[in-house]
Amino acid sequence: MRDLTPTGLTQASGTKGGIGESTLRPDGTLKVTGEFAYASDLWHEDMLWGVTLRSPHAHARIRSLDVAEALATPGVHAVLTHADLPAATRYGLEIEDTPVLADGVVRHHGEPVALVAADHPETARRAAAKIRVDYETLPVVTDEASATAPDAPVLHPGRTDVPQGPPTSSGPGGTPIAPHVPHPNIVHRQPVVRGDVAAVKDRADVVVTGEYEVGMQDQAFLGPESGLAVPAEDGGVDLYIATQWLHADLRQIAPVLGLPEEKIRMTLSGVGGAFGGREDLSMQAHACLLALRTGRPVKMVYNRFESFFGHVHRHPAKLRYEHGATRDGDLLYVTARIVLDGGAYASSSPAVVGNAASLAVGPYVVDHVDVEAIALYTNNPPCGAMRGFGAVQACFAYEAQMDKLAAALGMDPVEFRRRNAMSQGAVMPTGQVVDSPAPVAELLRRVKAMPLPPARQWESAGGAADVRALPGGLSNTTHGESVVRGVGYAVGIKNVGFSEGFDDYSTARVRLEAVGGEAVATVHTAMAEVGQGGVTVHAQIARTELGVARVTIHPADTRVGSAGSTSASRQTYVTGGAVKHVCELVREKVLELARARFGTYHPAWATAELLLEDGKVVTDGGEVLATLVDVLEGEAVEAEDEWRHRPTRPFDRRTGQGFGHVQYSFAAHRAVVEVDTELGLVKVVELACAQDVGKALNPLSVTGQIQGGTTQGLGLAVMEEIVVDPVTAKVRNPSFTDYLIPTILDTPAIPVDVLELADDHAPYGLRGVGEAPTLSSTPAVVAAIRQATGLALTRVPVRPEHLTGT
């Protein structure tokens, strides 16, 4: 042991790569060079390939199902239908209403009907095509009118959470329909009522109403659904999967397989994006069922066509708003009715309804509110989680209303918003007090103050137009004729974390040991890294709290407790909070060990505040007392624990009152567009954003999240929509040929102004970042197009025919 008497003391230099620094992503280089291993790259020597047969109809009864010819195909090892399921036949995130395989009725286009395992993917596909299914088509439910009509087919007649029967009568045995779910084809209903709208309506000098529509957006992640199931000797299975929530998958899969959870070992594989679309099961149970039936590893990979049917989408919505204000520009009341199309199965629709209702008014102070939000069961594709989660649809509508009000009052739209903007201490329509910074007015001021991009950027000194800067771009459709500019603004509010009383926690395991003469920390969580940069932040937290340079991130799996979903902008807050908490436990253990070993060498061991920095134990004055390698002496220090944010409460079913959300995030956008009014083409020139992030743990990653969310909002504004046939409920455009997403040529400059006002309730004061910019970017773009064209534009995405009237 080396001499640690006071004569040997040195000054600490601090640990690099901690929070607040823009450290590089450990997976970044591998991803941009094509070397990163995604789930679709999984391989096992003797594996089979699994394929799904899906329904060509949106609503049909299965009269017969013949698999004999498929099973007789050479190379086929198994064909499974609903009749072959060993245990539970349904699953679901919130309501167990989704069949593992169709159970006599299909309720949406593309619903899984049968599974095939074969020694080659093409063999499996050909065998699946040989399965003979006799369908009896049934009437389709496609909207609120058809879902709640007196003669509407009840899509889930076995519901136990709501009495059955038409909305105007009693259910079986004279039982009244539950008032919060007035019809069995309504998944969930949430009112929010505060103040007395009727009493103040007459005081409104200006009243504006509007009806708005939001199309069905796809998450459009580039890595398709994929996974590999490997049967184990203990009768269980090992599943390697691209997902957002390992433990929720496990909870749903175990009953389907008829196995205890400890016999299903799940490991996260490389995920090529998610945005909510991997929160529900896709092929997880299917691959495991085939592997256990055949005794062979089974790989499943969806192609792009199948991916559109293999995951949920953003809820399309119809919204009706009424706002009343005084002539001075003060909001008096808001009424709103929000109808979300949940599709054939519930997924996370109840939680999406809660978000849409509670955030329906936006980041404004309004004392009198009457909001109703519902989600429907229909035969359209199932909808669930997508970035923004109910707040996107509401934001498009309430921001359009704010522009209409400003115009009616003759006020500047930004100043009108700032006049009514909430701030810390404001009361939400749910009665919840906003008890952390809410700099809505400041964000609007900042985004408006950013320099505007130069006009007519396509013009060069020589007079020739640079078509890349024009609407239509390289299609060379215009050279600047009939092109007009518009500028629009919007601001939004998004909750962070799981809400309404959900037990939102995360588990972390941290180990500190000496390896090769250097202290190394290993962080193990079940957090799904889907591209958000969580693995980078976890390493930064460990460096900050434990003072080590080397941090290893253990692969995410179910051998450690749940980390919750990588959604709701919650992972840095909740799992980051868990990593911070457990690192603090490890640090205390290390300091106890150090005091026991070296406490007699220097009085500072007993009197000073001790820190871990740069691989050393140091005083708060920077004096080095010992190295971590000497303290550990070959011993590993480990801790594991759960961490929770402060609890939330369910919203009252009748009034919507309650402390429903743990945190709010805010972002404001200014969009600059140029529109060819003759051709109906739009070029978004710039989409500037100002956002409060509390504390930027990794500034570069924060900027990337804001720019990514902004781009996804741009897509919804002008191009992205899954088109569903209103008569047949079939998807018309399940491909990236026909479902368009922004490319690098469509994405404008996105200057970002980051504000850091700490939330004292959150680790490091941080605020969830990823979703808020997805809200306000869409209405800002549409507001700019409205200013350029003078058109009302009440639907997104805005299409050329909406601008030309053709």
Features:
single chain, 806 residues, alpha+beta, Aldehyde Oxidoreductase, domain 4, seven-stranded mixed β-sheet, six-stranded mixed β-sheet, 29 strands, disordered N terminus
- Residue stretches low in confidence (pLDDT < 50, at least 5 long) are 1-10, 163-178
Name the overall outline.
Answer: globular
Number of helices: 19
Q: What would CATH call the class of the domain at 433-499 and 661-804?
A: Alpha Beta
Terminal CA distance reads 85 Å
Fraction of helical residues: 10-25%
CATH superfamily of the domain at 433-499 and 661-804: Aldehyde oxidase/xanthine dehydrogenase, molybdopterin binding domain
Q: Over all CA atoms, what is the radius of gyration? A: 28 Å
User: What's the CATH topology label of the domain at 433-499 and 661-804?
Assistant: Aldehyde Oxidoreductase, domain 4
Q: Average the pLDDT over all residues and give the rounded result.
A: 94
Q: How many individual β-strands?
A: 29
Second CATH tier, the architecture of the domain at 433-499 and 661-804? 2-Layer Sandwich
Percent of residues in β-strands:
15-25%
Strand order of the largest sheet: 3-7-1-14-11-12-13
The structural class is: alpha+beta
The largest sheet, given as strand count, sense and whether it forms a barrel, is: 7 strands, mixed
GO molecular function, one term: oxidoreductase activity
Region (Disordered): 1-26, 145-181
Domain Aldehyde oxidase/xanthine dehydrogenase a/b hammerhead: 33-139
Protein name: Xanthine dehydrogenase subunit D
